[in-house]
Design a protein that fits this description.
The protein is α+β, with helices and mostly antiparallel strands. 23% of the residues lie in helices and 24% in strands. It contains six helices and ten strands.
Length: 277
């Protein structure tokens, strides 16, 4: 099934980024000290396939989600490794900003997860990051758009879903960027998670009011179409059946003209999902 387009989502990666020495590309008699000083290669796996994890978000609602193997194949073929940006904290770090960490030399789907290799550029900001990467102090995260999905809105209770939350299976993804982050939303954690989207929306509220207001309306449509609940109190869990707020979450200044979709916008969004009225 096609998905509601234009929603940029953030999820935690499947493993902590790792560093490996860069393969030797110089003659054996080259200076060994210089060779040892070369920047390493960062490896990242993300979006572990066929693993259920909980999304608990003011903007997205509360549901279980998994990604099917093959969901990244088309975007990898279309963009190639170099087409996916590799940033720190999604390009929103106060010092590094949107400077790229490197250009991926390999991006492919493996049995359990997408896999990326990134030779780090020899820059001062990368050298500042290397000790933390070597220590495993950072997590990983990626930004994407859902292109294809299927929903089971009344799955019933199961071992992986004791509360019978709605279940979303992502079948195709458009990948924008990936990289290390300070505070990842770990999809392997046992407790419910707040989606990385909540953090992104807080950032956009301060930096890009136009995009923020458009996403407010889009996420309201997303929740309404799929019947997803949102928190009934600030920082509370997203409870099924609770009201669908059209305004920003508590603690964020309400956005002007963000109280709902026009008839034309609603029709366009529903048509993208193949919903007939």
């Amino acid at each position: 099934m096609p998905a509601l387009r234009g929603l940029h989502l953030i999820r935690g990666g499947a493993m902590t980024p790792a560093l490996t020495p860069r393969p030797k590309a110089r003659a054996e008699d080259d200076d060994t000290a210089a060779a040892a000083d070369e920047m390493p290669v960062m490896t990242v796996e993300f979006s572990r396939f066929d693993t259920w994890y909980e999304i608990d978000s003011w903007w997205e609602g509360r549901f279980l989600e998994r990604t099917k193997k093959g969901a990244f194949k088309r975007t990898i073929k279309s963009l190639g490794p170099a087409g996916v940006k590799v940033l720190f904290n999604h390009g929103r770090d106060m010092q590094i900003h949107q400077k790229v960490l490197g250009v991926a030399s390999l991006l492919e789907e493996r049995d359990t997860s997408p896999y990326m290799e990134v030779p780090l550029l020899d820059t001062s900001y990368n050298r500042d990051l290397v000790p933390g990467l070597e220590a495993g102090a950072y997590g990983s995260s990626f930004m994407f758009e859902v292109i294809g999905e299927s929903w089971n809105r009344e799955p019933g209770q199961a071992d992986h879903n004791p509360e019978g939350l709605p279940e979303r299976t992502i079948t195709e993804i458009k990948l924008f960027e990936a990289g290390p982050v300070t505070w990842p939303a770990n999809p392997d954690a046992t407790a419910g998670l707040r989606s990385g989207v909540d953090w992104l929306m807080e950032e956009l509220a301060e930096r890009d009011s136009d995009q923020y207001q458009e996403l407010v309306r889009s996420f309201a449509a997303f929740r309404a179409i799929h019947g997803l609940g949102t928190p009934s109190r600030e920082d509370g869990p997203a409870a099924p059946g609770s009201p669908h707020p059209q305004a920003p979450a508590p603690g964020i200044e309400p956005a002007r003209h963000a109280r709902g979709l026009t008839a034309a916008q609603r029709k366009r969004r529903l048509s993208l999902l193949g919903v007939k009225r």
